[in-house]
Amino acid sequence: MNENRNAPWREALRKSLKNKERMTIPRVQMPELDAEYRSHSYDEVNRGLSLEQAMLEAQRCLDCPDPTCITGCPVEINIPGFIKNIERNNISEAAKILKETSALPAVCGRVCPQEKQCECRCIRLKMKSEAVAIGYLERFAADYERESGFISLPKREKSNGIKIAVVGSGPAGLSFAGDMAKYGYDVTVFEALHEIGGVLKYGIPEFRLPNAIVDVEIENLQRMGVTFITNCIVGKTLSQDDLLNEGFQGIFIAGGAGLPNFMNIPGENLAGVLSSNEYLTRVNLMGANRPETDTPVFSGKKAAVIGGGNTAMDSVRTARRLGAEQALIIYRRSEEEMPARLEEVHHAKEEGVIFMNLYNPIQYLGDEKGRVKQMVLQKMTLGEPDASGRRRPVEIPGAIETVDVDLVIVAIGVSPNPIVPQAFYGLNVSRWGTIIVNQDTLQTDLPKIYAGGDMVRGGATVILAMGDGRKAAKNMHESFRQTLSPDM
Q1: What is the CATH number that goes with domain 2-148?
Q2: Are the CB atoms for 326 and 354 separated by under 8 Å?
Q3: Angle between helices 134-148 and 51-58 (to 10 degrees)
Q4: Identical topology for domains 2-148 and 163-258+414-481
Q5: Which CATH class is domain 265-410?
Q6: Which long-range contacts (CB under 8 A, 24 or more apart) does 43-50 make?
Q7: Neighbour tally for 121: CB within 10 Å
Q8: Are 403 and 304 in contact (CB under 8 A)?
Q9: How does pLDDT run across 87-104, given as a tens digit for each residue?
Q10: In the CATH scheme, what is the code of domain 163-258+414-481?
Q11: What confidence category does residue 388 fall into, taking pLDDT thresholds of 50, 70 and 90?
């Protein structure tokens, strides 16, 4: 890091523009589609930076001697290194630096909560200035390289002949697979669905993360030697013994958390009340937004989404695009407590979504055909902070409202599907269904079996899952190094 920072070209950049001048450059604004147009379109909302915008934004980076932004990144990207290469118009080198630690830079640049991670550690914030737009620049570098047609791959060590199995092709599994391939292992990823990508495909709408972007990242992993097998449920199609008999010496469990949570209130079994998992999967993966689809979804005119996270925002913005004239967010806390990204909340409001904060559903009412027609809401107020640090919602006695709805999407969290943990006999599982691991290594109680991502965390961000993948790969590799011959 220090040697790279002291490279002659870095010194020249620092001399060409003093920090006082860099501080006067305003933060770049991401170009966006018009709100009225995009609320009826699946085109990507954020359009990306131009080369000129990216190079100017890169000049805002002060190239700190102690870059605290790196410590805020779960995969520890060399952030000043790639940004300074953008500043000098060496985009291919910037992309190369990104891929040294991130298997999915184009994805992370779009969906990671940079404002709560790398950007919140930016030194400019201490100077009463806006942070460098690290996420925008990460997306730019990855997109620019892809559009150039010359995509470089990370250096891969000589093959060591050891077969590694990965259960699940979401962000944790892909990150793990990429790092293990670089270490020289023979990696096979088993995916239960018919497409690779996990939550990146079924959970995130294309107006936020186009599938074509995910596909290119997956193709890069295939070029590195990673094998993908779809329509294969570990625990049903294959057992633990099957994997061992096929010669896999290490296993990383990254099956995600696909089991939806419900509130268990009256009326949840009515037609028109469904989980965000089902709703988004039908649209994102099965094409329910297209009239010719074999897997349709009801397009309500009065849609309500229960929850305040990114999945809730994805669901309600999808409902708007499918024709909802009334699209509501029902959240039991205030907007300040919402876990969703500020950008997603902002985009939702621009697209006509109505936020009903400090409300909680207590019952759904149906019509004579068994379809939901109304929801009964309890008005809330905020009390003392709970274990999460957010103020606890408290009922206001007698404050009840009834709202007309014909579609309710419940987005209040997910749990791990028990099929995968049950496939590995002797695996230690918590009462919440998450796999218990050594927090330092992510190794389970079973030899050579590691786990990470939502299967361990119970629900988290893409970048945290990727961080788990990298951590597990590093520690599994270390455990194998003792058995590898010196020339491997």
Answers
A1: 1.10.1060.10
A2: yes
A3: 140
A4: no
A5: alpha beta
A6: 43/207, 44/206, 44/207, 44/208, 44/209, 44/210, 45/207, 45/208, 45/347, 46/110, 46/139, 48/139, 48/140, 48/143, 49/136, 49/137, 49/139, 49/140
A7: 18
A8: yes
A9: 999 999 999 999 999 999
A10: 3.50.50.60
A11: confident
